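S.,

Sequence below, as promised.
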Amino acid sequence: MPQKKGLGRGLDALIPGDFQPEALAGRGGVKQVGVGQIVPNPRQPRVVFDAAELAELAASIREHGILQPLIVSPASNGRFTLIAGERRLQAARQAGLKEVPVIERETSDLERLQLALIENIQRADLNPLEEAEAYRQLNDEFGLSHEAIAAQVGKSRVAVTNTLRLLNLTEKVKQALIKGGHPKDESADHAFQFSAGHARALLGLSTPEAQNAALDTVLGRELTVRETEELVRKFGGEKPEKPVKAAPDPGIADLEERLRANLGTKATLRHGRKGGTITLHYYSDEELESLLGRLLDE
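The prediction came back faster than expected:
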């Protein structure tokens, strides 16, 4: 299988670059194993498989067989743990195969997770939450930093960090992300899809209630990612900075003080290049009468 540039050692560490099934079979590289002897990889990050795609693959396997062997690791009682090839194994079972070709390799628990993750990323098989959960395992259970994970899967550290943040979404938002939202017309050529970009925008909201409320609006109005970001700002995800008040002009302050002394009440002066205003304050009818008396010289 061709490996994308930057995807660490990946499956090339297990399958020779000049892979030829017939040649490998002659030197013990490929062998047939009963499908019942293969147990799932407990570290398999992918949990969602498209039924239509599996049926299509099963039909191809019935006609052409499995063109690329599965990768397995020895387990107990004559069984094998699947490392790579979950879709092929499921499709082989659907196709009625009793045996499948495998390449046997010794691997650690960490390598099983890394290789399954890399295989799925190479094929773009993982949904964002499956990818995030795999990164979490690498980080929490194996102590890999975000930088180390990024190096393994050929992505930037920021991309890994942002993907991990998706695990902080509410269950309702996670389900919408897995299903792609609920387009009003699923038969439309450009049906709305709730994407990881939408979900990351909702992470700007601090409470589960706010995330769920915003999600309803996004799905109901079929908002774009940019519109969702604007919605989050309106929901209070970002508060506009308060303008910094300029220091009062000493000359203006002096005039206000002189007006207060002469008129006996608070005075506010607003002065600009083309004029301004003077505001006089009073706090009772008596103060108003007194102020009018001074101004009108009564």
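The CA atoms of residues 33 and 51 lie 25 Å apart.

Coffee later?
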